[in-house]
Write a structure and sequence with these properties.
Rossmann fold; Methionyl-tRNA Fmet Formyltransferase, Chain A, domain 2; 2 domains; seven-stranded mixed β-sheet; 8 helices
Length: 328
């Protein structure tokens, strides 16, 4: 017998999961998604989840707060056997979780219990992980702490960006979810409790988190640059004697092996064999692609043709600091 399934999701990670449910033999009864947001110029952000629901003539509910009495009544009106949650963007109360007959399950983009929270894909990359995956789990009031129903892992590419990895994980999720739904229908699920000793958190990011910390190792700077694209985007300020401070997006670097005795002062910039290199905690990291404000991305050779790097130049925060390039 087919389940009556309610979808709850907002972000692009959720779209393939929603589409997979619509193509399954379950009855999708509606979508709950975040309220429409207005960008600059009063232009509405595109909500691909809402568009997909409307294509299938499904009712859409967009509460500001899913946990109000009105929202809970609307949720009950869907008369769902199960709610599937993916990148929804709101915390569900215990009462909301229990409203569908079999509760709510979540499609989460990490290998739980690692990276509980709103930004698991970005944190996995930024922390230098080489593996991640998708976990389907039962939702309970504590954040991402419910019993695991299924999990599938994949390797993270050495140069893979956050947006690229999110796309691969979102494509992995639908088949895994449908398998879990079938097991719930058959009564064959084997929930597994998470190991609390292995929990790590993946808090959401602000735009300022894109600022690169050059005091880290070359490897972790590279991971930060990959993990913040396409958002909040990796940036740094280039300070050059005799020139105005420039805010640059640093879009690509070339990782390399550290050499003994390399620099200690972070952020110092200089040309090495024609390449623009920045000192990290364990070596000189070559930059390959940048994007100045108001311009398109460019290879570093093009940038250097109009932007000389004099002695004493360095990357860092917006405020100037004392740098003695001779120490490196």
């Amino acid at each position: 017998m087919a389940f009556r399934v309610l979808m709850m999701g907002t972000g692009r990670f959720a779209v393939p999961t929603f589409r997979g449910l619509l193509e399954s033999d379950n009855e999708v009864v509606g979508l709950i998604t975040q309220p429409d947001r207005v960008a600059r110029g009063r232009r509405k952000h595109r909500n691909a989840m809402k568009e997909l629901a409307e294509e299938h003539s499904l009712p859409v509910f967009q509460p500001t707060n899913i946990n109000t009495d009105e929202s809970k009544q609307r949720l009950a009106d869907f008369d769902a056997d199960l709610a599937v949650v993916a990148a929804y963007g709101q915390i569900l109360s215990a009462e909301v979780i229990k409203t569908p007959r079999l509760g709510c399950i979540n499609v989460h983009a990490s290998l739980l219990p690692r990276y509980r929270g709103a930004a698991p894909i970005q944190h996995a990359i930024i922390q230098g992980e080489t593996e991640t995956g998708v976990t389907i789990f039962q939702i309970e009031p504590k954040l991402d702490a419910g019993k695991i129903l299924s999990v599938e892992s994949i390797s993270i590419g050495e140069d893979e960006l956050y947006g690229e990895l999110e796309e691969r994980l979102s494509a992995l999720a639908p088949a895994l979810l449908i398998q879990v739904v079938e097991q719930l229908r058959d009564g064959t699920t084997e929930p597994l409790a998470q190991d609390a000793s292995q929990v790590t958190k993946a808090r959401s990011f602000k735009k300022s988190f894109g600022l690169i910390d050059w005091s880290k190792t070359m490897h972790l700077v590279h991971c930060h640059i990959r993990g913040t694209q396409p958002w909040p985007r990796p940036f740094s300020y280039l300070h050059r004697p005799g020139h105005k401070t420039a805010r640059l997006l640093v879009l690509a670097v070339t990782p390399r092996e550290a050499k003994p005795g390399e620099p200690g002062m972070p952020g110092v910039a200089k040309l090495i064999d024609g390449a623009l290199c920045v000192s990290c905690s364990d070596g000189w990291l070559p930059i390959t692609t940048v994007q100045p404000e108001g311009k398109r991305p460019m290879e570093i050779e093009s940038f250097l043709r109009g932007n000389p790097i004099p002695y004493g130049s360095y990357f860092g925060g917006e405020e100037p600091r004392d740098v003695d390039a001779s120490t490196t």
